[in-house]
Amino acid sequence: MRRKEGVHLGFASTSRRHDADGHPLAVIQPEVDQLPGACKNWFTVGRWVDVSNQDYGVTWATLDAPLVEVGAITANLIGSQTNPNTWMGKIEPSQTLYSWVMNNHWHTNYCAEQSGPQRSATPCSRTSSTIRSRPSGFGIECSQPLVVVPAHGVAPRPASLLQLDTPDVIVASIKPSADGRAQIVRLFGAAGKPAKVKLNWNSSEAKAVYLSNLAEINSRRSQVPLTWQHGRSSRCESRRK
User: Fold this and answer.
1) CB neighbours of residue 95 within 10 Å
2) Cα(36)–Cα(158) distance, rounded to whole angstroms?
3) Please, are residues 209 and 223 in contact by the beta-carbon 8 Å criterion?
4) pTM of the full predicted structure?
5) Is the omega angle on the peptide bond into residue 156 within 30 degrees of 0, that is, cis?
6) Which 3 state secondary structure label does DSSP give 127?
7) CATH topology (fold) of 162-240
8) Helix (H, G, I), strand (E, B) or coil at 228
9) Quick one: CA torsion of 104, 107, 110, 115, rounded to 10 degrees?
10) Which strands form 169-176's sheet, in the order they lie side by side?
């Protein structure tokens, strides 16, 4: 018999600040960044949830289960909920997270049963030096792991293609340019504040570096290493010929 069911996994912490990567390149704080009437029984998470204070914290990266409940199991609302008092109106401060791994509560167009392995979360603890910048990088590392492929010929260079001199800025992506003549490096200010970073290329192939717009059109040439001042924009692109 296929009964309604939900699977939850609980995780507890001793820190106080609770952030969630709920939107692309954005950090959401429950209660603080929600519109009136927004759902508070559960949250959808992009890559990570962070629970921390000024001195230490824990980042929780979810891989296959993007639904999270804060403080208690409050998402088991089966059937159509027409009474507004059924839904949570406020989230009390809590350091406990519940991963809503799977459920079959919905009525149509959903599988009545789910199977297979589920990777719910990978925790990472850290100190105050990386409180704000580390969660974004850790979430990307978990959701976009390195891909191992067979290689032939000369061994690849031992060093990374490029290095940044601050953890407050991370490389969001590296891609070939549309015209095939360069590499586009997109940076993200992960600390949520202005930051200055140098891109140090570990290759003699970096003959020229440019700042470019979203259309990959060069705006001005920069020296190697490139220095980028993060202000209002959360992303920039550099072109390497």
Assistant:
1) 18
2) 52
3) yes
4) 0.68
5) no
6) strand
7) Immunoglobulin-like (2.60.40)
8) strand
9) 20
10) 169-176, 183-189, 237-240, 209-212, 218-222
- Contact 52/15 with Cβ under 8 angstroms? yes
The two tokens of residue 187 are: 């940076």
CB 72 within 8 A of CB 66: no
Q: Write the CA distances from 85 to 37, 88, 168, integer angstroms.
A: 11, 7, 42
Residue 143 backbone class (left: φ over 0; alpha: ψ -120 to 50; beta: rest): alpha
β-strand partners of 162: 201
Tell me the pLDDT of the chain (241 aa) as tens digits.
577 788 888 888 766 555 666 666 677 888 888 888 889 999 988 888 888 877 777 888 888 888 899 999 998 888 778 888 889 999 888 888 899 888 888 777 777 776 777 666 666 666 554 555 577 777 777 777 778 888 788 876 666 778 888 888 888 788 888 888 788 888 887 777 777 788 777 766 666 777 777 777 766 666 555 555 554 333 344 455 4
**CA of 41: how far to CAs of 68, 92, 133, in Å?**
9, 11, 27
* Beta carbons of 102 and 6 less than 8 angstroms apart: yes
Domain borders along the chain are: 6-130, 162-240
Closest C-alpha among 209, 189, 212, 191 to residue 200: 209
Output the CA–CA distances (angstroms, integers) from residue 167 to 75, 138, 192, in the order listed: 36, 11, 12
